[in-house]
Specification:
single chain, about 450 residues, 7-stranded antiparallel β-sheet, iron ion binding, metal-binding, Rng_hydr_dOase-A, Rieske Iron-sulfur Protein, 20 strands, alpha+beta, Aromatic ring-hydroxylating dioxygenase subunit alpha, 2 domains, Naphthalene 1,2-dioxygenase Alpha Subunit, Chain A, domain 1
Length: about 450
């Protein structure tokens, strides 16, 4: 039995692995699926348990802040957040604060958001500036980080000849996303993201823009929050309403190098947990009822005689998204217009692939190891000639729901939110102090921790 009265009991799954794989479903698609999605990318790992101290120990969190966060590329902003020279985005994470700033030549630079005089933050929110003047004593820097003015400069003659430019972080750009990295050296952004740029060249996130952006503080460790979106194993218990059109156990998991992994969860099919006898019209009716992210509420679709719900949804979405984005999507496979291609880039960036309105997750530790700022963006696609509006993040209060802003997707997210506080308090109360993971379905979680350990060992 579940402890959430909103979630009904679900049948016990069989002890046999599903005979239908995502690859076998993709082989039936009406258009060819890209070869890179058919690849089986694995990384050999053992099945040792994880220690709960990774989530509950303040010392472990301090080690992450000191050894990991400064050395990784972090998604800091989207291009549409800062279209004009002087626009800047305040990005804060793991004890650091940055001003990610559009320069006069259109380039982007990132500066530490700290006055070099008495340490006050120069800015406390995103915006536009002709310069960065400290509100405390008036020390002022140009938007290129160079020092502009010291009030009463006669009293600072001891600083003559010193470089008082704002310290700078590395900046990289890909697909409309802007990344920063504090520490010098290490892999380039392209190396760090590989093979993401190769895969997403087909889906062109550089043509995307933010249509919705909602954030909420979750009382759980940032890793526990991120891991809730790395596997579909939890669907049958946490999201039973979507089992009637989601092949949760049919999901495919790929691991690429150290930093990137992928889960592909098929839609338009019945969950293997519910058996193998499905009415195709019922599948598509449930898809339309519970998947408002990609379907306008109230839409009805009839499945033609002899056709599957998956193929029917593929035809519908190619037309709908083609019109919505102003593009010809006749080449897109059924999978690319309905399945969940949930990529994860270490440590906290998760963009979805495909030719459909895109979900992007970002998780940031929120002041301590027990709280996380979870951000959810929806990306649309600009039609040729359109200009993206500048987005603003909606910050939810604890009593507010993702469902109020993101519809059915938000309702599903709230089911995850119900779990996470109890995951944190449960780990803190654990007697065994160990977490036992599935070998395949939770392989992305283990892959994530293997990469984290490589930073902590430095």
């Amino acid at each position: 039995m579940t402890d959430d009265p909103r979630v009904p009991d679900v049948p016990e799954s069989s002890g046999k692995a599903p005979t239908v794989t995502w690859d076998s479903l993709a082989s039936l698609d009406s258009r060819p699926v890209p070869d890179f999605l058919l690849e089986n990318a694995r990384v050999e790992m053992d099945d040792a348990p994880l220690d709960v101290e990774r989530y509950t120990d303040p010392g472990f969190f301090r080690a992450e802040c000191e050894k990991m966060w400064p050395n990784v590329w972090q998604f800091a902003a989207r291009q549409e957040e800062m279209p004009e020279p002087g626009d800047y985005v305040l990005y804060e994470n793991a004890g650091r604060s940055y001003l990610v700033t559009r320069q006069a030549d259109g380039s982007v630079r990132a500066f530490h958001n700290v006055c070099l005089h008495r340490g006050r933050k120069l800015r406390t929110e995103s915006g536009w500036a002709s310069n960065f003047q400290c509100p405390y004593h008036g020390f002022t820097w140009e938007t290129d980080g160079s020092l502009k003015r010291i009030p009463c400069q006669w009293d600072f003659s001891h600083l003559d000849g010193q470089d008082l430019s704002l310290p700078e972080a590395q900046v990289g750009q890909w697909g409309g996303y802007i990344f920063i990295k504090e520490a010098e050296g290490g892999p380039t952004l392209e190396e760090f993201l590989s093979p993401l740029p190769e895969h997403f060249a087909r889906w062109r996130h550089e043509d995307a823009y933010t249509t919705s952006w909602v954030a909420k503080v979750v009382p759980a460790n940032w890793k526990a929050c991120a891991e809730a979106f790395m596997e579909a194993y939890h669907v049958s218990t946490t999201h039973p309403q979507i089992m009637a059109f989601t092949g949760d156990v049919n999901s495919k998991y790929n691991l690429y190098g150290d930093n990137v992994n992928l889960a592909i969860t098929p839609f338009g099919v019945l969950s293997p947990t519910l058996g193998d006898s499905a009415d195709e019209q019922e599948i598509i009716d449930n898809f339309l009822k519970y998947n408002g992210r990609v379907v306008t509420p109230g839409t009805t679709i009839d499945v033609p005689e002899g056709k599957t719900a998956r193929a029917t949804m593929g035809d519908f979405n190619r037309r709908r998204f083609g019109e919505l984005f102003g593009r010809d999507l006749d080449h897109a496979s059924d999978a690319e217009v309905q399945d969940a291609f949930t990529y994860n880039v270490f440590p906290n960036f998760s963009p979805w692939g495909g030719f459909q309105p895109t979900v992007v997750y970002r998780w940031r530790p929120w002041h301590d190891h027990r709280h996380t700022l979870m951000e959810v963006r929806l990306l649309g696609r600009l039609k040729p000639g359109e200009t993206a509006p500048v987005p603003a993040m909606t910050f939810l209060e604890p009593h507010e729901s993702f469902a109020d802003h993101l519809g059915q997707l938000g309702a599903i997210l709230e089911q995850d939110m119900h779990n996470l506080p109890h995951v944190q308090t449960g780990m803190e109360a654990s007697k065994t102090r160990k977490l036992q993971l599935a070998h395949y379905q939770e392989s992305r979680v283990r892959h994530f921790h293997r990469t984290l350990d490589s930073y902590l060992a430095r």
